[in-house]
From TrEMBL:
Superkingdom as given in the UniProt entry: Bacteria
Official protein name in the record: MFS family arabinose efflux permease
Organism of this sequence: Roseateles saccharophilus (Pseudomonas saccharophila)
Localization: Cell membrane
Keyword annotations from UniProtKB, A to Z: Cell membrane, Membrane, Transmembrane, Transmembrane helix
Major facilitator superfamily (MFS) profile domain segment(s): 8-385
PANTHER family: CHLORAMPHENICOL EFFLUX PUMP RV0191, PURINE EFFLUX PUMP PBUE
Keyword RNA-binding attached: no
Major site of localization recorded for this protein: membrane
Membrane association type: Multi-pass membrane protein
């Protein structure tokens, strides 16, 4: 059984690496050549990407409901085809209409094929015991940018941006589709059982807790996306040298993986609410150091922000499971992250405006946002049943 679970995690983690690398991380390297050839401004490409994020937010609950009923295998297999279709449409685009149409398809694929769908698929297979598997796939897919950016750059250099899109589309068919098809079949459930989200693990209506979690996820995704888009510019604004900006920005990825390893090791015996609270404190601590000390604190900021973001990524999957249970998980997960996807779509534009207007004082804004997420997490109580289960499973 343990070996079978390892194979599932390895297959799904690899498929997720492919999905993230060919969607979320694609515009960073291809936006400029796309814009130049299609005759549009570079921000137009990112606007199309933002539209895809909005579409993914709207699709998420529907995709989650289908995973609740049928399991992740058929949904993720269909998503491989959607990713391939969207990337092929992108490669064939001849203007802004074709570009936006391609990203609309990509939005549907992202809403039904990224982390939330993978988490729901694992919960459908393993129920309350899915926490370790969720951590496992985030450990593997945490290298999506590390793998995706160099590969996209090499493909674009060799074949142009259209060739890069065709190559990623082909990889979804020859690699992603078989990997997702390798997932075990889940027994179908009735529609009523799959969509019953009226009670949580504690037996009480989860509306307030769900609202608090939705705020936490929206804040954490807003900050992580803002840092991904503007970190080099922010570090330059505090006086870091150009070489230091590049080196320190590269620390965020390894720090995220380190945070996930910490969750997989020491923190796995704690209720995920406690690890999420610790993680929510890391960005404001790093931001305060950077705001006060300036350039000497850039490495500390990158490490703290990255580690906190890595743990919070796992919390997006494990917290709803621990607080509300596995029944109806997929649909509930889609609803919980819907505000987060919308915040993610607005983040690069809004944070860019704030950075331009406030300069380095924008760090106090991001720190205050993160502290509001921490406050929300502190208002959530650990259900007595899940707390007992955590204690019983500790060594």
């Amino acid at each position: 059984m343990a070996g079978s679970r390892v194979r599932v995690v390895a297959a799904l983690g690899t498929a997720q690496t492919l999905a993230w690398a060919s969607s979320y991380y694609l515009p960073a390297l291809l936006a400029r050549p796309m814009a130049a050839e299609l005759g549009v401004a570079e921000p137009t490409v990112f606007a199309a990407f933002s539209v895809a994020l909005v579409v993914s937010a709207l699709v998420g609950p529907h995709s989650g409901r289908r995973i609740d009923r049928w399991g992740g295998r058929p949904v993720l297999m269909a998503t491989s085809g959607l990713f391939a279709l969207g990337l092929a449409a992108m490669a064939l685009a001849s203007g802004p209409i074709g570009l936006f149409a391609a990203w609309l398809v990509m939005g549907v694929a992202m809403g039904s094929g990224l982390y939330e769908a993978a988490f729901a698929s694992l919960v459908r297979l393993y129920g309350q015991e899915a926490r370790g598997a969720i951590t496992g796939i985030t450990l593997i897919a945490g290298f999506a940018s590390t793998v995706g950016w160099p590969l996209t750059a090499a493909l674009e250099h060799a074949f142009g941006w259209r060739g890069a899109c065709w190559a990623w589309a082909g990889l979804h068919l020859v690699l992603g589709l078989p990997l997702n098809a390798w997932l075990p079949r889940a027994l179908p459930t009735t529609a009523a059982a799959a969509t019953d989200t009226t009670t949580g693990a504690s037996g009480k209506p989860p509306a307030l807790t769900a609202a608090l979690l939705a705020w936490v996820f929206a804040v954490s995704w807003f900050i992580s996306t803002a840092m991904a888009a503007h970190l080099p510019r922010l570090l330059s604004a505090v006086g870091a040298a150009p070489t230091a900006v590049i080196l320190v920005s590269a620390l965020v990825g390894p720090a995220q993986v380190a945070g996930r390893l910490l969750e997989f090791g020491l923190l796995r015996h704690l209720h995920p609410l406690h690890s999420a609270r610790a993680a929510a404190l890391m960005h404001p601590l790093g931001a305060a150091l950077l705001a006060v000390l300036g350039a000497p604190a850039v490495a500390a900021f990158a490490l703290l922000h990255g580690a906190g973001n890595g743990i919070l990524t796992i919390a997006k999957g494990t917290l709803p499971l621990a607080l509300f249970g596995s029944q109806g998980y997929g649909q509930r997960q889609g609803l919980l992250v819907l505000p987060a996807r919308l915040a993610q779509a607005l983040s690069p534009w809004l944070f860019g405006l704030l950075l331009a207007g406030l300069g380095t004082r924008v760090l106090w804004f991001s720190a205050a946002l993160a502290l509001s997420a921490l406050a929300a997490l502190l208002l959530i109580r650990v259900p007595a049943r899940t707390l007992a289960e955590t204690v019983e499973t500790s060594p």
